[in-house]
Specification:
single chain; minor pseudopilin epsh fold; 4-stranded antiparallel sheet; 2 helices; 37% helix
Length: 176
Amino acid sequence: MAIAAGRRRIRLVRHRKHGGVTLLELCFGLALVAVLAALAVPGFRASLRAAAVRSAAFELMAGIQQARADSIVESRIGLWCAADTAGACHGADVPSRAWRVALEAAPARDAQVHALPRGVVLRASRPALRFWPHAHAASTGTLTICDEARVAAPRAIVISQSGRARFAAATSADCA
């Protein structure tokens, strides 16, 4: 009789339906998710920083091209400079968190200040770039967009004597 009762109990346990997961299964699943997340975070961070630098470079390129076009259309000298977030122009090779574009002899309120993404700085080889109304830059210059965390590769924009801008290779030494 004891054997029959034991068999009945085994059958009851075997045929019982599970309504959920056990605590052990839940902990194992959470541990697996945590390990996978820890492996993905460094790559995700690098992707975010690279996207911020790339975005800043494209926005800066568009701003330079707009300054050149405004200079030609308005028949006035266009001015581009690396600036602080308040819009004050910096000197050459000073890390800047924004840039400013305006037409010379225009009221200061017409100047446009563009902030860079957080953690991205700009270094310019010249304190200011001037675009003449006949489509020539007053001087050549190189603008280097750097990631402060040094996770993403820097990007450079070179302005030629004719006022045209192009992307160029940059090294981490350009950001030091």
